[in-house]
Each structure stands twice: as structure tokens, then as C-alpha cells.
Specification:
This protein is mainly beta and 591 residues long. It is built from four helices and 37 strands.
């Protein structure tokens, strides 16, 4: 039996833990007065952030104990290179290449063609793009006596298939990292999907025990550091989604029939079993599968669905089932951190479930951490998003808009979210609803009242350790000829206060390319840069960014931000004058 589990992962030093910024409730950015400044970028100290908005995010699974908690990865369009950043949005090392274009038949931009997916285990970053898998060692942090200039490629492996064929297959490897049905889909909704997959499955499961690579019905395990093949199995009975942990791998077809459980040690088949169909699997954590089981059917308004559902955690390796509870069919669920699942019901009950692996148990386990009532829960539950941050969960619940709200916003125009820039990922939608800060230990409410938002869209790919939440949207005016505007809202995760609100950012293009945030603990600043779509520019035509300076000076007492009590968008006098001037110039003269 292979015994390399204890030695294959690169170690994590004590300095890594000490440098983790996620344990002080944002002390580097003191609560109090925040001064917003328009600045020209790039500055000398953050020149590498000049490409904000020109980076396609690469989905990354950062496993517990990783060298860089909250690490983000992206593909930079102008340099055709990969770039990494930490939980404060700061660049890690220099841009690096996945592999030479020759592997892709001379294609200039292989990442745009086939997509990418990544996992960070300890100090090793594993990336899959199409048929190729590469492993990189993460640069050591500055101050440890080693240069932190570049990622070092350890090995590259191919599954032997044509890299330009069946490009859509890359999405299969990403499914295990997200909820099967997003937070806008009721748990009780009936979903029908095609019986068979159209393309051979591809997937990667990386742990400290090895890197499992699935291609169709072939499965192999490689050493994380050397890339050497430890074992290989061909002609598996099925292909499908690949899930697993350091002990077992499971190949799960969409139908669930004939799921194969394989030992990570030697590749032998442990058992075959049946799982519920793909649309009944809510999420996977390790080899555990959270399953939705209907209880009572209903028919209302011609829609099919279920009044009540129950959730179970199923372990294919042991066939064990752990009940997670019963919930309303209209409830929404969302991931709430590593191994955590949050469920919100229409009556405001929030339940946090721990479905992560238990280190002292051979089987997967599950338990309810807490169940609490959200204060001032609005009616008309439509969506759920959860952001874990230090000691709390930021719970964002979307609701149905009132007729008055729709009428008020109709006069302003249409609000749209910035594009996700992740191939195959659904774009975020503007949300009207409430935001709570909830203790992740016992469910206690940490703000006096929830904040409220009106057609705001949470920006994707935010640095995890920063103390603010960024909402970004495009305002499309109802009148032809008016310039589109960008709207930013920054909420403090500690207080719920709005530290910056700006609805007046004129746009040069109708489609912005993305947002980037960077925090500087030494200067107590957070910089928000929004692509190249912002028309407000400084000397030399360089785009401007917004710098938020946290002064710590006292401010008058105020509740969390209440967008529902304010106009949906602040008026822009400059745009109004520009519009009426343009209209005046088109009026024919009387002589």
C-alpha cells in the first residue's frame, strides 16, 4: 500500500498562520470616519493592480490549511498569464504560465478556449485546463528569506485527449465546488435534466493524498509533488462527476445508478451503489453528498413543487445516511464557508448545518450548528447569499419588490449586475432585500437592525479578508442618449454602515469588465478599481480608482444602511444638464 500521504504535501510554516489577516475583525481599518478619494492608477506601490477588470477569474477551491487562505486566481488578458492574489487583494508573485501554447496546437490563448479550474492544497496549486493538469509551488511570503517572485511549475500531465476537442467538458470538474441549485432556486422546486451526459466527463480531485484525474472512464492518481502515476484504472463501469477525500474517490453519473467507490490507496473498487439523481444532490463536501428528499407534494398556480423537503448527508463509501432536518419547500440554501450550509425559510428561520468531514470519524458526519430567527424578515423570499467573515456570517436575503418600488425605480432606469467573467457561471442579479450580520457560533444578531438594499448586486470575486462588502451595478437610464452610469455601494461588515455610496460614475462603454479591491493594512486604505470603463480619467488619460481611507475618527450614531428609506439612485445633476443641453441643441430654430 502507498504510504506517501504524510509526506507529499509541502509544509506550512508558522509565519503563514501569523500573517493570516483574517483574525482581527479588520483592526487595520479602524471603525469610524471613512474618506473617499478619486485617485489615478496605477500608483508606484500597486502598479500590478493596473489590469483590474481585464482578468478572467479562475474558480479555485482553497482547502483548509492552505498556505494562502482566501487565495484568488485569474487569467490576465493583456499578458496571457495567470495571476494570483491573497485575501487582501494583493498580488502574489509574478504572473506565470500554465503551459506553452505548443501543447494546444499553437493557440495563442488556451485559457480562453478551454477554461480552467484550480485547487490549493498546502503550498501546491493544481490547475486543470481541458485535458491538461499542472502543479505549481506557491511562492514563499516576503520576509522569510526566500524570493517571492514567481510560481514554480512542478509538473504538467495530459489525459491524452485532443485539447481542442469537446472544450465544454471542463465545466464538469467545477460542479463539485458549487451548489447544485443556487440560492435563488427553492429547495422544493422540481427540476428535470437530460438523462445522459453529452460529453465524456473530466474532473480533478486534489488532496494531500494525491491528485485524482478522471477522463471519461479512465481514472488515475498522481503524486502531488512529482506528478508520477501512483495507480491507474481503465474501463470504469461509469463516468460522471468525481468527488472524494483522502481515503475514497467516487465516480457519480448523473442518473446516480452504479456509482463507483474507489480506494485512494491502490485504486481497487470498494463498492458500487446508487445515488439520487443529479438534480436531487444539493452539494458535495469531500465524498459526502447533501441530498434533497421531498416529503409532501403541492400544486399551486400551475407550478409543480413540494411543500416540505428533508435534507440528508449520504456517504457512498459506507452507505451511511445522516438526517439534516426538514425545511419548507420555498426555503433557499447557500454555502456558508468550508463545510457549512445555510438554509433560510420564508418565516425567517436560519439554520446553519456543518456537513464537513470530521477528523475523528471514518465516515462523513453532519450536525446542526444553530437555528435562529432573522429579525425583520421581509416577505416574499426569493434568494439567499452568505458571506463568511471572521466571527460572523453576512446573510443577504432577496425579496419580492413592492409595486411602489418598481414604479420608483422605473423612472430611474434599469439596474444590471457586472458580468461574472467566469465561463459557465451564472451572472449575479440585482437584489432587493436585507443584510444581517449573524454570529457563526450561535446565530446571534450582531447588528441592531438589518441593512437594506434595493436592486444592488454583490460584486463577484471579492478579497475575503477585507472588512467591506462591495456591491456594483450598472444604471441604464430610460431616456435614449443618456450615458450609462456605474453605481458602487460599500458596506462595513462590522457595523452595516455604508462607507461609500456613488451612483454618479459615468461610463465610457456600456459593459464594464469587472471590479478589483485591494487593501493596504499599513496605510488603512482600500482601493476599488473598476476596469477601463470609467470615463473619469486623470492626467494622461489614466483611469481613476476610488481610495477609501479609514481614519478611525468618531462619527454620529446611525443604524446600518437603509436603502429602502432612500431614493433608489441618487440624482446626477451633471448628467441631467448634459441631457437637456443635448435636447436643446436638437430643437430647430424659428428662423
Amino acid at each position: 500500500a502507498w504510504t506517501g500521504v504524510q509526506t507529499c504535501a509541502l509544509p506550512i510554516s508558522a509565519a503563514d498562520v501569523a500573517d493570516d489577516p483574517g483574525n482581527d475583525l479588520g483592526a487595520a481599518w479602524p471603525v469610524g470616519k471613512v474618506v473617499a478619494q478619486r485617485v489615478q492608477r496605477p500608483r508606484a506601490d500597486d502598479a500590478r493592480q493596473a489590469a483590474a477588470g481585464r482578468v478572467i477569474p479562475v474558480p479555485i477551491d482553497v482547502q483548509p490549511g492552505a498556505a494562502v487562505p482566501g487565495m484568488r486566481l485569474g487569467f490576465e488578458l493583456h499578458s496571457q498569464m495567470l495571476v494570483a492574489s491573497d485575501a487582501l487583494g494583493r498580488r502574489i508573485g509574478e504572473p506565470f504560465q500554465f503551459d506553452s501554447a505548443a501543447r494546444f496546437g499553437g493557440m495563442a490563448n488556451p485559457f480562453q478556449a478551454v477554461g480552467a479550474d484550480a485547487t490549493l492544497v498546502g503550498r501546491i496549486l493544481f490547475i486543470r485546463s481541458g485535458p491538461l493538469v499542472a502543479a505549481f509551488s506557491v511562492p514563499m511570503p516576503a520576509g522569510e528569506g526566500k524570493a517571492a517572485e514567481s510560481f514554480h511549475r512542478l509538473w504538467v500531465a495530459s489525459d491524452g485527449t485532443d485539447p481542442t476537442a469537446a472544450l465544454a467538458g471542463f465545466a464538469i470538474g467545477r460542479e463539485r465546488r458549487r451548489l447544485k441549485r443556487g440560492g435563488s432556486v427553492p429547495l422544493g422546486m422540481q427540476i428535470s435534466e437530460p438523462e445522459e451526459m453529452q460529453l465524456p466527463a473530466r474532473g480533478v480531485q486534489a488532496t494531500a493524498a494525491g491528485v485524482a484525474i478522471l477522463s471519461g472512464r479512465s481514472l488515475e492518481l498522481r503524486d502531488p509533488v512529482s506528478g508520477d502515476v501512483i495507480w491507474r484504472r481503465r474501463r470504469l463501469p461509469v463516468d460522471g462527476e468525481l468527488i472524494g477525500d483522502e481515503r475514497f474517490l467516487c465516480v457519480c453519473p448523473r442518473s446516480g445508478k452504479g456509482t463507483v467507490v474507489v480506494s485512494m490507496i491502490d485504486g481497487r473498487i470498494i463498492r458500487t451503489c446508487d445515488l439520487p439523481r443529479h438534480e436531487q444532490r444539493l452539494m458535495t463536501v469531500g465524498r459526502g453528498v447533501v441530498v434533497i428528499e421531498p416529503i409532501a407534494a403541492r400544486r399551486a398556480g400551475g407550478r409543480g413543487g413540494f411543500q416540505r423537503v428533508k435534507l440528508e448527508l449520504f456517504d457512498p463509501a459506507t452507505l451511511g445516511r445522516r438526517p439534516l432536518g426538514e425545511f419548507a419547500g420555498e426555503a433557499r440554501a447557500a454555502p456558508a464557508g468550508a463545510g457549512l450550509l445555510a438554509v433560510v425559510e420564508p418565516n425567517g428561520r436560519l439554520t446553519l448545518l456543518d456537513v464537513g468531514p470530521q477528523m475523528d470519524d471514518d465516515a462523513v458526519d453532519a450536525r446542526e450548528r444553530f437555528s435562529a430567527m432573522l429579525d425583520d424578515m421581509p416577505s416574499g423570499l426569493q434568494s439567499l447569499q452568505v458571506i463568511p467573515w471572521q466571527d460572523r456570517l453576512l446573510v443577504i436575503v432577496g425579496r419580492q419588490e413592492t409595486a411602489e418600488e418598481q414604479q420608483r425605480f422605473g423612472k430611474i432606469g434599469m439596474a444590471t449586475a457586472l458580468p461574472s467573467m467566469v465561463p459557465g457561471e451564472e451572472s449575479a442579479q440585482p437584489v432587493t432585500g436585507s443584510v444581517w450580520a449573524v454570529s457563526r457560533e450561535n446565530g446571534a444578531m450582531l447588528w441592531p437592525v438589518p441593512a437594506t438594499i434595493v436592486r444592488h448586486a454583490l460584486a463577484r470575486q471579492q478579497p475575503a479578508a477585507l472588512p467591506i462588502m462591495l456591491f456594483a451595478r450598472t444604471i441604464v437610464p430610460p431616456r435614449e442618449g443618456e450615458r450609462h452610469r456605474l453605481s458602487l455601494l460599500c458596506l462595513d461588515k462590522r457595523t452595516g454602515h455604508a462607507v461609500h455610496v456613488d451612483d454618479k460614475i459615468a461610463m465610457q462603454h456600456q459593459m464594464p469588465t469587472g471590479c478589483e479591491m485591494t487593501g493596504d493594512p499599513l496605510t488603512h486604505e482600500i482601493t476599488v478599481a473598476v476596469g477601463d470603463s470609467v470615463i473619469n480619467r486623470g492626467a494622461g488619460g489614466a483611469p481613476l480608482a476610488v481610495r477609501l481611507v479609514f481614519t478611525g475618527e468618531p462619527t454620529p450614531p446611525r443604524p446600518p444602511y437603509q436603502a429602502s428609506a432612500k431614493p433608489p439612485v441618487t440624482s446626477d445633476l451633471t448628467t441631467e444638464l448634459e441631457y437637456w443641453l443635448r435636447k436643446a441643441l436638437t430643437v430647430p430654430l424659428p428662423f
